DNA sequence: CGAGTGATTGAGGCAAGTCAAATGTGGTGG
DNA sequence: CCACCACATTTGACTTGCCTCAATCACTCG
């Protein structure tokens, strides 16, 4: 099913180690660090806004890297409550599992292109090449680090502290020329921070009123005072 | 400093692969799975109740396995708010890092004995033995899985759902003859679940009043109806 | 330029937090 | 062995930060 849909829509297949698209940041090309060593076949593939990439508990057949666009990884409760565990931005690897299935679902936030390799081929490479095995471990470990930081946020920070942390994270990860263009809506931010979209909006309005940030459209944000934002972040 | 204190208090050094203490569950002996392969030296060591094992951001010199007792891993905010990321019970490995430092601090909840090996020797073994490298990865991946589940709990579950989840987790991990002896106090439980100790206590009282659990002392709990607890867990 | 979705703002409610007091309990020394 | 003490837990009364529900506003994109 997934394979069919991939084959039907694949737009480009290449031997990795070839040139990397402009959206992939060179110093953080985690995928290349693996595929370059072992000559794995990487395929490019695109998803539309809100399209599912894989579901929770689905077999983990592929490992992905965002080329352009943005992805949300999340879990759902039976009544629809959602917790987004991470946002994946250009250059990020996602969907890497040590076990057989995906622990979270993944969806494109906006139209998104990914590069992907078969999980089985990575596993095989890791069995031969210790460098690859080490890389898989460190990628999982940095996801764990993020999750540990996020548990602190979700369990113990106030709404304003959460929003401040979020803004500083996004500023670090996607600011260009001091401005960030958020790909996600207020509901996504709320579901990432364990808040409602209204609470996120109120916190942003308050930061705007205090001159800590500026808007040019709801999703174009300029941080005017990172120091004060850090102070609000506990 | 750490090394000194370790040397001063070490009570037993052995080549691993020897017999395992009775408190370590045989089917989940993650440590043995590693050390058995490469003949690493494991040392036993004990900590008193509330003693720090390592601090946040401290160099990760050792990897630990609980032999007996219980350990909490946590992060602190500057004003003292605490988030416990995990409890480590007999058989569990903790303190395993891919990077140079510990991401969370660790403390003994009660008097605790651990087995430990040098991180550097594990790293070395992983460079030679692909089985070891794979094991390190899967151990980190299962910590990540727990953290992802816990983010959902912290971000989206109600107080009663959190406590129900906690009880089912502890029942699974440390119930003997249908009864569990919790090593941690209500404050630890609250800091694990993102609640206050009072809220934890009220939820437990309510479950007791509904006949879902029974007490013999505040920390000796017997689950009388796991199905109803599952229903409360969303 | 208008429709539709996303964002903001307001008013009121409630789940969980805070503060405080009473009760229970395990550990220890007389 | 038991009485006491220190601390853990429970329970109560009240507060509050965030949520819910609802209405308006403002982009974005046909």
Structure in words:
- The structure is a homodimer of 234-residue chains.
- With 234 residues, chain A is α+β, with helices and mostly antiparallel strands.
- Chain A has 2 domains: 2-154, Jelly Rolls (Sandwich); 158-232, Orthogonal Bundle (Arc Repressor Mutant, subunit A), CATH 1.10.10.
- Helix content of chain A is 42%, strand content 24%.
- Chain A has 8 helices and 12 strands.
- A 5-stranded antiparallel sheet of chain A has the order 1-2-9-4-7. In chain A, strands 3-8-5-6 form a 4-stranded antiparallel sheet. A 3-stranded antiparallel sheet of chain A has the order 10-12-11.
- In chain A, helix 3 (119-128) crosses helix 4 (130-156), helix 5 crosses helix 8 and helix 6 (186-193) packs across helix 7 (197-209).
- The longest helix of chain A has 27 residues, at 130-156.
- In chain A, 43% of the residues are buried.
- Chain A binds chain B through residues 75, 77-79, 81-83, 85, 97-99, 103-104, 126-128, 130, 133-134, 136-138, 140-145, 147-152, 154-157, 191, 193-194, 234, and chain B through 75, 77-79, 81-83, 85, 97-99, 103-104, 126-128, 130, 133-134, 136-138, 140-145, 147-152, 154-157, 191, 193-194, 234.
- The structure holds a DNA duplex (30 and 30 nucleotides).
């Amino acid at each position: 099913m997934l394979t069919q849909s991939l084959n039907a829509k694949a737009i480009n297949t290449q031997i990795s180690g070839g040139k990397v698209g402009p959206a992939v940041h060179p110093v953080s090309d985690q995928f290349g660090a693996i595929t370059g060593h072992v000559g794995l076949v990487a395929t490019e593939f695109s998803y539309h806004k809100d399209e599912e990439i894989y579901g929770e508990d689905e077999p983990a057949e592929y490992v992905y890297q965002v080329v352009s666009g943005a992805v949300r990884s999340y879990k759902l409760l039976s009544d629809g409550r959602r917790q987004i565990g991470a946002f994946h931005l250009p250059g990020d690897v996602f969907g890497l599992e040590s076990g057989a299935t995906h622990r979270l679902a993944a969806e494109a936030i906006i139209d998104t292109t990914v590069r992907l390799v078969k999980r089985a081929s990575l596993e095989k490479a890791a069995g031969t090449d210790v460098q690859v095995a080490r890389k898989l471990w460190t990628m999982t470990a940095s996801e764990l680090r993020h999750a540990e930081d996020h548990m602190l946020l979700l369990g113990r920070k106030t709404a304003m502290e959460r929003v401040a942390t979020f803004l500083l994270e996004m500023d670090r990860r996607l600011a260009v020329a001091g401005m960030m263009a958020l790909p996600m809506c207020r509901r996504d931010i709320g579901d990432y921070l364990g808040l409602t979209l209204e609470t996120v909006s109120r916190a942003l309005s308050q930061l705007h009123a205090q001159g800590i940030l500026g808007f040019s459209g709801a999703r174009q944000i300029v941080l005017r005072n990172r120091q004060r934002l850090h102070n609000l972040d506990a």
